[in-house]
Each structure stands twice: as structure tokens, then as C-alpha cells.
Structure of Glucose-1-phosphate adenylyltransferase:
Amino acid sequence: MTQHDPRRSHPLARDAMAYVLAGGRGSRLAELTDTRAKPAVYFGGKSRIIDFALSNAINSGIRRIGVATQYKAHSLIRHLQRGWNFLRPERNESFDILPASQRVSEFQWYEGTADAVYQNIDIIESYAPEFMVILAGDHIYKMDYEVMLQQHCNSGADVTVACMEVPRMEAVGFGVMHVDADDRIVDFVEKPADPPAIPGQPDVALASLGIYVFSTRLLIDELRRDADTPGSSRDFGKDLIPYLVKHGHAQAHRFGDSCVRTAEEPAAYWRDVGTVDAYWEANIDLTDVVPQLDLYDRSWPLWTYSEITPPAKFVHDHDGRRGSAVSSLIAGDCIVSGSTIHRSLLSTGVRAHSYSCLDEAVVLPYTHIGRGARLSRVVIDRGVHIPDGLVVGEDPVADAHRFRRTDKGICLITQPMIDRLG
């Protein structure tokens, strides 16, 4: 167990490596992940989902980062190469992209989240970090990992697990931490029908966020032990964490203690945008006058690959043909040409042509909206060409026949769906 040395003159993040697990299929996002991994899905007009975990690491002071990729990784790897290549080895910094490359066995891809770290132990050991911060690459949040590292050292824990307080019966879809009065984890239950409550808070449970801190030496020992355990699924949440809860010291870290937020952000913000409905809602929420997530916080910037683009442009000023946007986010290189945009998010390079109307639309890069089209409550994939006069969001039966329509009435539109219209 590692105790914090009060004589240490620099942040613990300097001695840590962030390891981002970015290989998930993201199948609940349906066609949005047909050609890209979930962490590579666009978010907020300019960024990708993975940029949040990576930005948190950089802003926390971590300068050694590894990203494990697996499924449909090309666009993710390209984004990482273009936007995250500024770390310099001569400054004792590193950024490694770690695809599943059968390094342990020529027949073995990453079998689980723990295996995605185990197969790269030699790379981790070559950097010799004192701590490992294990992160999921597919959530939206702002967090200072230094605070969690400090707690990990001060508690002497074998593993520290970031958790979020949620209404108890909403925790049925999470891994739930059962803790004692000192937040030591005494049991871990995966997606329980009757989640255990926090001591003294009978209506609240602690849900795991898939963020873990280990001392590197202990983690490597545990990964090797798990790899030698018959029947293990090689997963942190299913195998390693429950084992350490039972046989070691597992400590809960409350997300509210390290969540980064401005005075305008009313509560700790964490979102899993793993469904089309959740993805649409999180993007549309950004259009609020005071959104729950502040992307304009310059003290905790969201790093990403930023294309060099001209400013957004609004043209035509005639009745019925006025380029305008209200309560909307419009990225660079967009041209709103005689189109009306309301409570929508337009990513880079969108063209909205005359007499069209977008209402509560999330539009991914380089999409063209045809003349006279009316679209409401939609997610439009990258590069789609919406035909002139197309109407979506007014006839649920027709929408469900032509596009993917969710139970909450959100339509996902991709180019193959448009092509099938004939």
C-alpha cells in the first residue's frame, strides 16, 4: 500500500500514467458506430467523445497517456494522431496508441478491459509510472484526477474506484459499490435489482464510473494473477475490482469531490451517451442558455483536433428565406443559407440551404441540408446529403419506416438510409 509522502514537492499526476480504454463497440448507438468506435463519435460540434477523458488527464497534469483501441479504430486513431501528437518524449511525456495487435498471442485480441492493459504491461513498465489511472474513453465529464490520486495515496488503498451518487433505484444499470461509513468498499454488485444504499442515505447508491487508480506495481501483479485464473473474463468490473474488494482494500472516491465545474454549472456532470436518445439529449442540452455542461470554461479546456476552417456564415435576408440560428451552436465552416435553425447543433462544415428548417437537430460534420427540408428531433450522421423537401419529425409511422426512430421519437439518419429512399 502506498502512503502519500507530504515531502513530495510536485503533484502526484506527474508520476502517473493515464490508460484510456477505447475499444468498445458502442452497439447501442446503432448506425453511428457502424464505421467508428464509440469514443470516436462526434460530440458538441467540434470534439469527439474520447476528448473528455484525454483532456481531463492533460488538465490534471498527467503527461503519460496510453489509449487502447480495438473495434473500428481507424477514425479514432486518425483523430488521435492529428489532435494529440503534441506530447514530447524529451519532456518526459508520451502518448501511445495501443491497438489490439496480438502481442501476447497471435490468436488473441483484447478479451476484456483488464486484458487490454495486461497485453501492454511491457510498455507500461518501460515508462515506470508510480500510479495508473484507468479510464473509460466513452463518457462526458470534467474531472481532476489529481484529487483522486491524493485520496488513493492518503487512504492506503489497493484500488480507488470513482463513484457517483445516484437515486438508489436508478443504479440498477450500473456496478454498485456497497461502502461502510468510511467509504471503504465492502461489496461490489453488478447491475443489482435491489441496489445497496449509502450508509445514512437510504435512497442513494454509489454507482461505479469505470475510473480506477492503482499503484502500478500492484496493478501489474493483479493483472498477472487474473491472467492465470481459469474462467476469468479479464475485466476490471467483473473480475479485478470484486477480487480486491474481497481480498484487499478497495476505496470509493466520490465524483463530486473531484468534478470540475464553473459557478454556472449547478451540479456534478457525468453522462454516458451510449444510446441515440442519450446522445441527442446531451448535445441538445448544450444549446440551453445556461447548460449543465460548460464548454466555455477556459480554465479547464477541452482539447481536440481543431480543423482550420473559415467562420460560420449566415446569408439571405428575405421573408421566408432568412439565414438565422436561435438557441443553437454553429461550428466553423457552416453556411446557413436562407435556412432557419432553432435549438440545434451544427458541426463543422454543414450546409443548410434555402427554405430549410432544423429544430432540435444534432447534425454531424459536412452534412448538406437540401432546400425546403424540415427536420426536427433528429441526429444526422457525418456527410449525409438530405434531399430537397424531405420532412422528418412530423409523421412517426413514416419516420420509423424510413429511418431508425427511437422510443422517445428521435430519428437517426444515415446516408444508406437516404439512398434507400430512391
